[in-house]
Sequence to fold (288 residues):
Amino acid sequence: MALVSAREMLLKARKEGYAVAQININNLEWTKAVLETVQELNSPVILGVSEGAAKYMGGYRTVMGIVSNLIDDLGITVPVAVHLDHGSYEGAFKALDAGFTSIMFDGSHFPFEENLEKTKEVVAACHAKGVSVEAEVGSIGGEEDGVIGTGEIADIEESRAIAATGVDMFAAGIGNIHGKYPENWAGLDFEVLAEIQKVTNQIPLVLHGGTGIPGDMIAKSIKLGVSKINVNTELQLAFAAETRKYIEAGKDLQGKGFDPRKLLAPGVEGMKRVVREKVALFGSANKA
Fold:
């Protein structure tokens, strides 16, 4: 199956009561680590790519080249979607043209009517090519490549209107944030999530800021219709921690320990460990 839209995998997850992980990728090591791990676990996956990450990796077409060639060369058979994360209006069309199989248009910072109209345009263009679409109401707290959200709680009627555009998945702010959660974090607003589930007509819901949300909250979110959970920071932290250990132990000074294939290997293993943990927590193992 391999490279696909996110639509069918999320409808299946919604029906069967689990969530698919969106793991954000940043380079070859990230992409390879995620693909190898989900293949091992027989789990579907969504590879998230922010506009900043796409620029860092060389552009949208380069991202697609890396992913599609790794799928072929590694023999990946599980469903894989390549998803633009928090895309701008312009970025959504660029990623679509480059072959992304799923697009998030984040119009949450626009006045609502403008967000609604632009979402309709993105949906029409993407669906014409069989590409899935995610939209957002109520900004997600924290920062994602310069996109800053204050953690607003989504308006229920605005959620109803955006869902009616035909989007394939829907992200609503319910108190979740990007990055590390502060000690005084109030937690997720499950009352709002329950209301959003009612007005969005069984559309798979998306939980951004999956790093650091307790397991019991994850489980409750899935029961309330969350079918896609985004994870980014946790992999970055694991990669940094394992790389730091390697260097502080002086292993980069032993023999050819400076070779990037050796230098980066502990960080890659750290990322794989996080992916295994998330797939187990979200319940998507053996769901490919």
